[in-house]
Amino acid sequence: MDFRRASTGLTGLDEVFDGLRLGDNVVWQADSVAAYRDVVTPYVAQARHDGRRLVYVRFGQDAPLIDDLTGIEVHELDPSLGFELFARTVHQIIAEAGRYVFYVFDALTDLLGSWHSDMAVNNFFKVTCPFLYELDTVAYFCLVRSRHTVETLSGVRDTTQLLLDLMQIDGETYVHPLKAWGRHSPTMFFPHLIQGDEATSITSSGASARLFAALNVPQDRTDPWRLLLDEGWQTLHTGDAAAQDAAKELLLQVLLARDARMLQLCRESLTLADILTIGSREIGSGYVGGKSVGMLVARAILERAPAEPGTTPLAERLEPHDSYYLGSDLFYTYIIANGWWKDWTRQKTPEGYYEAGAELHRKLATGHFPPWAREQFWRMLEYFGQSPIIVRSSSLLEDNYGNAFAGKYESVFCANQGTPEDRHQAFEDAVRTVYASAMSPEALEYRRNRGLGEADEQMAILVQRVSGDHHGESFFPHAAGVGNSSNLYVWDPDIDPDAGMVRLVLGLGTRAVDRTTQDYAHVVALDNPLRRTRVEVDDLARYSQRQVDVLSIVDDELTTVAARDLVQTDIKADWSLFASPDEGWAARLRELGRPVTGPPPMILDFAGLLRRTELAEWLKRALATLAAAYGYPVDIEFTVNLLDDGDFRVNVVQCRPLQTRSLGPAVPMPQLEDTRDCFFATDGDFMGGNVQLPLEYVVVVRPAEYLALDQQSRHAVGRQVGVLNRMLRSRSFLLMGPGRWGTTMPSLGVPVNFAEICHAAVLCEMTYEEFQPELSYGSHFFQDLVESQIFYAALFVEQPGVTLNLAQVLDLPNELTSLDSSAVLDEVIHVARVEGMTLHSDVVGQRLICTSGGAAR
């Protein structure tokens, strides 16, 4: 026997296409699973007779294809757990089985019962078939006729070695080879009548015509995903409540959410009509992702919220949206179409997590899209016309309870100008950028730190029309910001934390979520919107927004303009709503001995908007309404646009649970007779609840020495801090440095990414000459601190009530080189091992004291 040849178990059929060869994937297109079983039986019997190793991959709902499973390795899988886990498990089974194995798979059509997506079935076959071929296996698959789209049949035909049409007509069985790779004969591609062990070619035109006329199978089939939506619309109009509930539940679970809490929130907030509308605006199939779900649920909650007595319903001031969604299945289709599935599966292994991740990060930004997807991109862009759009990440795990992924994935603005071809290219580039961000170093580190390294994290995409209007040659909303229903950063004992807080900017909301620029958003405590923060009271001009992010219609890109220049632009609103005269300008000039001439410059303080409109009250009510529905504090992103009559509209573009811990019970505060007995103390300007937190190490970036460094050396400090962060991850340690931690600009503070400080117990920013902390409440950096439960403090050392005794730590031995023998920055970074140092905080009294540690152990 030729070991590399094999048999179907039917001699006549073997003669038709010269038998089976190692490496063959055999796909049967059959009328039913029962018909498929008829050809599986002789194949299994022959493999047993030849002493082949047999593996049966079982996932269907019908009875097993093989009656006698003696001596056969059976793997029972659950496809409802999702495409990735299913495909990876099959890949692992094949890898462990090795070479020369014979396989039987249940009918691929059975996967539609769990996935409802022919695209997913096609993807599964495309990643499984080549791997089987590489290992010189023989595998049987089945597609039930009339259940799959032309695209899936085409994909299977392109990938498999043998595609055989199995027909049962008038009690007779026929096999019609449609593809037989590497074989040819004059009669191979005729239909063949199978009778017992014999196969007779049907070569006459008349007999062939009668045979195929009897089959009468339409060629074009609608994707099961679209059929599911069509059936949902039909159910919606029947009035059958039970059928509608069943349709809603199914669509919830395959389109919106898998997490139990988010699924329940969707169930309570969205109607069947809502869900069907979402599905009708999806490109591809699969989940629309966490960011899309958060936005949709929040809007539904606000639209249906009952009005309180004497108030305007929240829905009346909610701007409508018409978003599109790129389904999560398209992400896998993109990976598979470009031949990167092996990289994807390798990235899920411990040894390939970062290496393959880096390779995918590069590759994902360079691939091509299937023709059908590109066509649907065209249709979507034709719908939006030249309205600017934003292409936003919306991964499966994003914005869920427990994992915000704040700022870890990309969002890309498309000004959407130029020719249709230019706009189409820009959109595809934006999608590639978002896809690539799924494998960015920051995202990989975040997922690993959150225990999600091997989780199924598909990247869906949310495409939103940018909220705003044309103002001169720029496009932007009048205002934008982030809001939190629970104010975790209380700088004044009179502040009501439950009233919430917002971080407000003029123009696009990018400046509300960043802490990387020499600029400041306006922080608003919603219980008293005109209350100023501590730093604003002292110097409002310094701690206000100076730059505005806009979309340039002329340059077709996101750009930044000076606020003072924008004041000269007609923004279709009263400028006094956003800017006020700088009251301290004249006094500063007089102090400098300079003449006071002309009107004072304007400061963006939003005082008019907060005083003369109901915006603050609307945001306060909206945040409270969302938090009540979520049963959890929430974080939102929003835009504000003013109408011609002076009224406003708010567009809620994102909503997620704010992963905060409670304030905790009050703790006893130490009584200090002399402030020299503590490391530092401050009234207010901290976040993290009531704590009594013992510390083992303190890491200080020495301010004067850091100031003396050049830019490159300051970046080296950030990298060294990252090394210490990993080394001390199991210890309770405090990080302290001048200015802003997490900035990208060394002139403002210590340039680290969050992964380089994520294990700290306490993060402390302090003033030193030009270095200033930024109370970046609501930014992505803030979200990271809250989610990681890192206590935060800002020390404005020149302010009353603030004490800092750096010598208590700097006089202790520097452990830097003991921890890292390669470290070369010990004159700048001081690592002290402390004994008895404890951080105490009282949120109600707004007092923070870090009691002194003893000598190094």
From TrEMBL:
Transmembrane segments annotated in the record for this chain: none
MF-aspect GO terms: kinase activity
InterPro entries: ATP_grasp_subdomain_1, PPDK_AMP/ATP-bd
Pfam family, one: PPDK_N
Keyword Kinase: yes
Residue ranges annotated for the Pyruvate phosphate dikinase AMP/ATP-binding domain, each copy included: 287-667
Keywords, ordered alphabetically: Kinase, Pyruvate, Transferase
Protein name in the entry: Pyruvate kinase
Native species: Flavimobilis rhizosphaerae
